[in-house]
Design a protein that fits this description.
Number of strands: 11
Shape: elongated
Number of domains: 2
CATH class of the largest domain: Alpha Beta
Largest sheet: 5 strands, parallel
CATH superfamily of the largest domain: Response regulator
Oligomer: single chain
Helix content: 40-55%
Order of helices and strands: EHEHEHEHEHHEEEEHHHEE
Length: about 220
Amino acid sequence: MKILVVEDEPKTGTYLKQGLIEAGFVVDLVHDGLDGLHQSLTEAYDLAILDVMLPGIDGWQVLQGIRRAGKEMPVLFLTARDQIEDRVKGLELGADDYLVKPFAFSELLARVRTLLRRGGKAKEAEVLRAHDLELDLLRRRVTRAGKRIDLTAKEFSLLELLLRRQGEVLPRSLIASQVWDMNFDSDTNVIEVAVKRLRKKIDEDFEPKLIRTVRGMGYVLEVAA
């Protein structure tokens, strides 16, 4: 699942992004309100985490822009402002939850998962499938032919990306940016190693094979016709 974080304090933003990535999410981080609004309207996200006090435009205005555009993704406000009036304002503008700084990351993660479970889009896409392979986004569980398969957080994110873009050849540069949050380095074999390990877990003992290497281009997950 993909989350947008709009947070102008660099240390907090990096902390949030790293923690959410380690929890298995794909995360985009921006540092001002205008970029946050642009990202939310041009990319598809399952959830947005917004600070209220932002440069450019504030979190309230970002939320208003999101809702005016008809976007129904859940929005969680993160802010140091804990007055009741602020919470009410956020909820009236269409926010789904409100967490006051400082916070425990475990609480934020629990709220994120609760919002995703409640969100309409999350319900529609709760389980991703290809043939007899199933990936349950909310329970963080993968099975093939009914057999439970244990994956690391990175393997789970890689498989989610391949399933969401099933049938599409994904270049290594895209996989690097979406799963590892890094620019692709042709001298590293981290992606090849991860794909090899994922293949061993979901393809080695099953038929048909689902993950295929397209030489010189990247990787694709598809069910052969």
